[in-house]
Amino acid sequence: MEHQSAIAYGNKFLNGYLGRDGSGTGWGKKWDFIVVHESGHEWFGNNITAKDIADMWIHESFTNYSEALFIEYFYGKEAAQEYIYGNRRGILNDKPNPTGPYQRK
Ligand SMILES: [Zn+2]
């Protein structure tokens, strides 16, 4: 996880996320998802944030964007776009928004 004072790693030193590529494009299996994703959180320091943990999607969405930047840097813009489009196929869009229950009213 991305906590600066309590680093945790659980990806078994595999590429992708536990060996899987959520994008289904193959680009996500060329690198260790946890290392890149959690480094993405560190990169912007979660400074783009939300008032309530229910909106954690803001952290995760921006960090997902940082994964695409990583791919673009190492494999090119077309690869990054394929990765993003691939991940988008996994979004069911079956709820009006991705928020959780709000703690603050
Ligand atoms: Zn994350």
Using the alpha-carbon principal axes, give the shape.
Answer: globular
* Distance N to C terminus: 28 Å
Largest sheet: none
Bound molecules: zinc ion
Q: Which oligomerization state do the chains in this entry correspond to?
A: single chain
Task: Please count the helical segments.
Answer: 3
The H-and-E topology, N to C, reads as HHH
Total E-strand runs? 0
Helix content: 40-55%
The pLDDT mean sits at: 89
Percentage of residues in strands: under 5%
* Radius of gyration computed on alpha carbons: 14 Å
- The SS-based structural class is mainly alpha
Low-confidence stretches: none
Short description:
This protein is an all-alpha fold.
Your description of this structure?
This protein is mostly helical. The model has no long low-confidence stretch (mean pLDDT 89). The radius of gyration is 14 Å and the shape is globular. The longest helix has 19 residues, at 57-75. Helix 1 (33-44) packs across helix 2 (57-75). It has a domain at 39-48 and 57-99. It has helices at 33-44, 57-75, 77-89. Zinc ion is lined by residues 37, 41, 60, 63. Zinc ion (ZN) binds next to helix 1 and helix 2.
Helices and strands, with pairings:
Blueprint lengths: L32 H12 L12 H19 L1 H13 L16
The structure holds zinc ion.
